[in-house]
Amino acid sequence: MKKFKKLLKTAFILMVSTATLISCSEDYKIPIVIPTNSIVDFVSSNSDYSMLLEALQTADSGIAESLDSRGPFTVFAPNNAAFRAFLSANNFDYLSDVPTAMLSQILLNHVIGGNALAASLSTGYDIKSFSTATPSGADMSLYINTADGVVINGISTVTTADISVDNGTIHAVDAVIGLPTVVTFAVADPNFSILKTALTRADLTFDFVGTLSTANGTDPAPFTVFAPINQAFVDLLEELEKDSLDDIDEETLNATLKMHAVAGANVLAAGLSDGLTISTLGGDITANITGGATLTDANNRVSQIVAVDVQASNGVIHAIDKVLLK
User: Fold this and answer.
1) Residue range 198-203: average pLDDT?
2) How confident is the model at residue 240 (pLDDT cuts 50, 70, 90)?
3) pTM, 2 dp
4) For every residue of the chain, which 3-state class applies, written as one string?
5) What is the mean pLDDT of residues 263-283?
């Protein structure tokens, strides 16, 4: 009996030891499930973002995979109403009607790198989206205006900010952020409000807005626009002894505006050099970069370039501080 009990004890010890060894050797094969709340998880669990989820599933699969990864990312998330308005405005019935490449780039235009809380955003073009639907293949610019809340590209307002998830931040927005043209930025940025007024004057015989809205890949796009800021126009009116743009005749205004647009080229700041001749729609100007980037017109008027490389889908904008004349 003692021998039997001893054998039984030994067998029990062996069983426990073997089980322990198996457990230790197999632990690495057992997945450890950690509950997460990624951007994709948040979108999937909120019914008001079902169309955003559908868009992520319809577009390039890499986008959804990325937004489910470590990050961090910041996403401006349009709700269902925003997507319905987008479809209606662009004559689509369903998200599946939107070309996949276009839908992918539009979704990427809602994503920026890092964890950008609303308080960290400032007015200007400091951030770029992940969209590369630009003539140069560079990241798309976003114009953020924080004067009254947070507005993106003049069309999409943050309605709920700083939704925290494990791999970043979500800001709910009320409109889909489409792929901006150079006109989008000219309209959205209050620094160009007088330029906007000039470009849209009813008596102009050249359709600046229509032309500068031409999609990339269609003649005469892409464009490089040297956009005078408001103070540049104020100074011009004083120089010409005029009270307003309405006092400038159509022929002069038309010719002046054409001096600020280049067709068929997306010229980034890095492409400028000393003595470079740039052929605008209205005539030649000369770029120089030594001592600061400038443009000189045929009248030897020198304009400083005060902001560069605002990249749109059909061209690029550089802001200047003096109006160029023919």
Assistant:
1) 97
2) very high
3) 0.88
4) CHHHHHHHHHHHHHHHHHHHHHHHHHHHHCCCCCCCCCHHHHHHCCHHHHHHHHHHHHCCHHHHHHHCCCCCEEEEEECHHHHHHHHHHCCCCCHHHCCHHHHHHHHHCCEEECCCCHHHCCCECCCECCCCCCCCCCCCECCEECCCCCEECCCEEEEEEEEEECCEEEEEECCCCCCCCHHHHHHHCHHHHHHHHHHCCCCCCCCHHHHHCCCCCCCCCCEEEEEECHHHHHHHHHHHCCCCHHHCCHHHHHHHHHCCEEECCCCCHHHCCCCEEEECCCCEEEEECCCCCEEECCCCCEEEEEEEEEEECCEEEEEECCCCCC
5) 98
